[in-house]
Design brief:
- By secondary structure, this protein is α/β, with parallel strands linked by helices.
- It has a single domain, classed as 3-Layer(aba) Sandwich (Rossmann fold).
Length: about 180
Amino acid sequence: MLEQDIKEVLVTREEIQEAVNRLGEQLTKEYKDKEVVVVGILRGASIFMADIVRAMDVYLEIDFMDVSSYGDAFESSGEVKIIKDLDTHLEGRHVLVVEDIIDTGRTLKYLVDLFKYRKAASVQVCTLLDKPERRVMKDIIPDYVGLEVPDEFVVGYGLDFEQKYRNLPYIGVLKPEIYQ
């Protein structure tokens, strides 16, 4: 049923798993002697975050933050609204922000600055997908990237359109007639 709305599969289930395994190894090395707070950005990053923390062999704590810069719009407004804040105090702690996709970078810039303001010992970013062509905030460069994707409207593996398609096991390009 959902497949009929997909123009093409951009990243297969196997390619996602390879990226998760590679990132898990890198993050294990990075945080082997540190306790890290892994912050997932709801809702899109939840599936990726579940996989990435299981691929990390380190002591960690998880927390979630829900922010919105889109509202009901197709494009980010640039204004970030915190819907659910963290329950964890960050002062003096190492923070790994987990994102599903980095597009313009506006929301991520806001979050990184916020966590630094809250006196985190370090703030690093891990994203499954990076879409550098659309980057507005040029100083936002993720520390860990699963895959780079072209400027297409992608859904699946947590990414949505109108809260649908998150449950696809791959990343697909949504047919334009669905979102236009």
